[in-house]
Amino acid sequence: MPHGKSASLTVATYNIHKGFSHFNRRIVVHDMRERLRMMGADIVFLQEVVGHNTKHVERHEAWPDAPQHEFLAETQWPAAAYAGNAVYEDGHHGNAILSRFPMIRCDHEDISTNRFEQRGLLHAEIEIPGWPANLHCVCVHLGLFGRSRRKQVEAVCARINTLVPKDAPLILAGDFNDWRHRAGDPLGEIGAHEVFETTRGRPARSFPARLPILRLDRIYVRGFHVQSAQVHRGRDWSRLSDHAPLAANLVLA
Question: How far apart are CA 212 and CA 217, in angstroms?
Fold first, then answer.
C-alpha cells in the first residue's frame, strides 16, 4: 500500500448545467473553469457537459471553440474523457471525467430506460503512481423517474460487479436525482458508501445552488477512508450552475 500523500486523493462532482447560469441567462463556462481550478481536485466528475451544439456556437460569441470537457480540463487535468448521453439535431451533451493521472481505459454505457430521457454512465480506469491497483471511476446522471433510477442503479451495480475487481478502489459520482434517497441500499450491497453519509449522516443538499434543499448529487466510494466532504456554496458558486458542486478528500484504505 502507498503511504503519505500518494495515498490521498481529492475528488469533486458537478452538474455544470451545460455551461449556463440559472434559467440559461448567461454563459458561465469560463467562470466555471476558474472556480474548478481553485478547488484543486485531482479527479472531477461532470454532468450536463456539452460536446457540441451548433446553435450555441452561432448565438454566443464567447462560446468555446473546444468541447466543454476539453475547455475545462485544458492544462489542469491532462486526461479528459467525455461521452454523450443526450443526442439531438444541433449537438449532444453528457458526462465527463477530468483527471490529473493517466486514463488507461474509458467506456460509455447507455442506461436509458425510456424514450423520454437519454441517460448514460462513463467508466474510466485510472493509473495512479504507487497504487497497487488501478482506480475505477464511474460518472452517472440518472433519470427523473423513480422506476428509471432503480433500473439504472441496478445497471451500474451490475457493471461494477462484472468489471471492477473487488480489491480495486472505486469512486462512483454524479447527479443521482435521488431526492427520495433510494440509491444507497443497492450500492451498499456492493460495498460502496456515500461520503457525506459517512461524515455527516446523510447525503448533502446540493440543489438548487442558491438555496440547496434537495439531496441530488452524490459521491460513493469503495476502498477509501473519507477524511472530509464539502459542499461548495456561496455567491460565486450560486451565480454559476443550478447545482452546487461536492468535493471529498479520500485516503486509500
Answer: 11
All residues at 6 or more sequence positions from 233 whose CB lies less than 8 Å from its CB, including other chains = 209, 212, 244
Give CA–CA dist 208/191, Å, rounded: 30
User: pLDDT tens digits for 101-159?
Assistant: 999 999 999 999 998 899 999 999 999 999 999 999 999 999 999 999 999 999 999 99
Please give the Cα distance from 50 to 73 (Å, whole number): 13
CA 5 – CA 117 distance, rounded (Å)? 41
Rounded distance, CA 112 to CA 143, Å? 8
Whole-angstrom distance, CA of residue 4 vs CA of residue 125: 22
Triad 108, 148, 86: Cα angle to 5°: 45
CB of 134 within 8 A of CB of 125?
yes
Q: Which three-class secondary structure string do you get for 133-196? A: CCEEEEEEECCCCHHHHHHHHHHHHHHHHHHCCCCCCEEEEEECCCCCCCCHHHHHHCCCEEHH
CA distances in angstroms from 220 to 11, 127, 137, 184, listed in the order given = 11, 19, 10, 9
**Residue 152 grid coordinates:** 439504472
